[in-house]
Amino acid sequence: MKYISTRGNVNGIGFIDTVLMGLATDGGLLVPEKIPQISLEKLEAMSRMSYQEIAFEIISSYVDGEISEQDLKDLIERSYSTFRHTDITPVQKVKDNLYVLELFHGPTFAFKDVALQFLGNLYSYIAKKTGVTINILGATSGDTGASAIEGVRGKEGIRICILHPHGKVSKVQELQMTTVNDPTVLNLAIKGTFDDGQRIIKEIFADLEFKNKYHLRAINSINFARILAQIVYYFYAYFQVKKENDKIEYVNFSVPTGNFGDIFAGYMAKRMGLPVGKLIVATNENNILERFIKDGVYEPGEFRSTYSPSMDIQVASNFERYLYYLLDENSSEVQSLMNQFKTTGKIEVSKEQLRLVQEDFSAYGVKNDECLQTIRKYFADTNYLLDPHTSCGVTAFEKCSPQEDICVTLATAHPAKFNEAIELCQIEQTFPEEIQQLFDKPQYLEVIEADKDEIARRLERHFTSAEVNSK
Ligand SMILES: N[C@@H](CCOP(=O)(O)O)C(=O)O
């Protein structure tokens, strides 16, 4: 299994180099040369496996022997031993045709833990094997940051810096990131939006001299390992639902979407042979992806702060990976559309391409009020408390999934992370102990201009500090 860039100028690299490269050196995103196919017999066998066993089957088909079988099994075991639920990502039936895939049982109560516990352990494994320090740079709209820090903190030979938009994440999200008192962890609160942070880190990664000098590594979903670990739970969820509904031929998935990584993992699962019907893109009022799926025009709108801050994103990183497949793996066309996006701020696909988009996806952009209404309605009717992101997913399920289909909505975070929104719904909730205790801790963060050069200077200091954990 080799990996290539969506823009065509990186070819034939292996899995570990793909993880280390993160953003491709030509500015594109790395994808496998061929998507592994899962046969019907294999699917049947996998339906009886545990989460960890399914993870091994999927991940090993992409790692292709670069990590020994035993080491990979150990990495997977270690990564999911931190989860509070024995099923790792349990599936709950909420009503007749709606299941919720609970992805928030990891250490930071968000779906990001599923991939970042794994990626943290993988980085640690690589750091030990190569003896080279790993300096991680990431941007977050709220959930990735805490989860990435939790995935690597205390691990030998790793430093991390996370950029978050100052004042634009929930209080619990901010506390989760900034109460970590560890000299290898740096939190920069930028005066800007998540899109500013994501653009700046991509510019820094594109400066190859800087990237190589400081061994910069990515933890965002630009890193293919993130997508890979997220493919697993689509398989797991399908098998759980199929057990209860043996006649179904496919399942729809409704996915709260910001950076397009989570739903892109679902698209990969479908391409691998999982019987997925529609992939429903649930956005909030930052609805670039909804507009693209409905009209074929990809063009950022005005930034809005919403009750689902993790999805307050205009430019979705993984859109480029999808574009690559939509354009029939034609990297020069991807390159030219991405250039066009850079100069005009807009991409428009043909009618035939839009038809293909709509074969796989439907979309709904949830208004702020609707998000709260759905939380109230489901709590009153089913006693199930949705977080605001999952509420967008459930609202989109109601709008887009036909009554006769079964749909799994991805529950991407625990409601306790977004108590501001839950309080507006006049619903009382008890905080899990791990979240409650954050309120008494001091915070460690630096507020900084959203300026690439200033941030790069701060990174140089952090990534050359003597502080790095050792055995
Ligand atoms: N929604 C994310 C934004 C970053 O996305 P990623 O999947 O590329 O890490 C967040 O909560 O930080």
Automatic annotation (TrEMBL):
Q: What is this protein called?
A: Threonine synthase
General function of this protein: Catalyzes the gamma-elimination of phosphate from L-phosphohomoserine and the beta-addition of water to produce L-threonine.
Query: What's a BP term from Gene Ontology annotated to this protein?
Result: threonine biosynthetic process
**Listed CDD domains:** Thr-synth_2
Pathway, per Swiss-Prot/TrEMBL? Amino-acid biosynthesis; L-threonine biosynthesis; L-threonine from L-aspartate: step 5/5
Q: Which branch of life, at top level?
A: Bacteria
EC number annotated for this UniProt entry: 4.2.3.1
Output the PROSITE patterns linked to this UniProt entry.
Answer: DEHYDRATASE_SER_THR (PS00165)
N6-(pyridoxal phosphate)lysine PTM sites in chain numbering: K112
Keyword annotations? Amino-acid biosynthesis, Lyase, Pyridoxal phosphate, Threonine biosynthesis
Gene Ontology MF, one:
pyridoxal phosphate binding
Tryptophan synthase beta chain-like PALP domain segment(s):
93-409
- Protein family (similarity comment): Belongs to the threonine synthase family.
What organism is the protein native to? Calidifontibacillus erzurumensis
Question: Which cofactors is this protein said to need?
Answer: pyridoxal 5'-phosphate
